[in-house]
Amino acid sequence: MNLPNKLTLSRIILIPFILLFMLPIHIGSWCPNGWNEFIADKGMIIAAILFVVASVTDLVDGKIARKYNLITNLGKFMDSLADKILVLSVLIALVDLNRISSVWVCIIVLREFAVTGIRLLASAKGVVMAAKMIGKIKTVTQMIAITYLMFETLVIKILDYIGPSSWSVLDITDGVQIVGDVLLLISVAMTIISGMDYLLKNMNYLRESD
Q: For 157-174, b where at least 16 C-beta lie within 10 A, e where not — what string?
């Protein structure tokens, strides 16, 4: 396995650790109170840092693959899969934490299933579709939105500490979350646009499958 593929694999390996620090643990009626208190206080910041590291590997693996001509069919498949698993896992966790609506996640999931279906049809014809530029832009907007959403608590604490005394925590929280909502809506819009782009440009695979 070459270096870009190892970086892509490391992105997948980081996902359970990100979720571990994002979500409190509940197994039936039992829960580790000490751990869950730690997660509530500092877990999201650790998870956000790990998410940033995972996101950086997405940027680095592609550059290395192109620079040293290490592009492989396995790499094309794994890179797209890793992005989807990373983004969807964290978004579902944010739904569980009541930060975002499941509606937006459903839209993103439906888009990913549709694009994956097109790729499966293409692979049946012997074509392995790499991520297109518009798809990469979509992923970048998603990762920016998710990173902001994960750092929101820290941003609120910083603004509350350095801001004027006239600022209330409630006002700061509302303002910070509005920015997060806007970033998320931008990423959802790019998700829809990129999905339509894939669909319209690859209609031939759908026609040939009839």
A: eebeeeeeeeeeeeebbe
Domain that holds residue 40: 3-208
Q: List the structure tokens of 150.
A: 């994960």
Contact 79/58 with Cβ under 8 angstroms?
yes
Whose CA is closest to 188, among 129, 119, 101, 113? Answer: 101
Q: How far is CA 143 from CA 89, 95, 104, in A?
A: 12, 16, 14
Q: In angstroms, rounded to a whole number, what is the distance separating the alpha carbons of residues 14 and 2?
A: 19
Between 57 and 127, the more confident residue is 57
107 within 8 A of 191, measured Cβ to Cβ: yes
* Contact between 128 and 76 (Cβ < 8 Å): yes
Read off the CATH number of the domain in which 200 is found. 1.20.120
Count of structural domains within the chain: 1
pTM of this prediction exceeds 0.70: yes
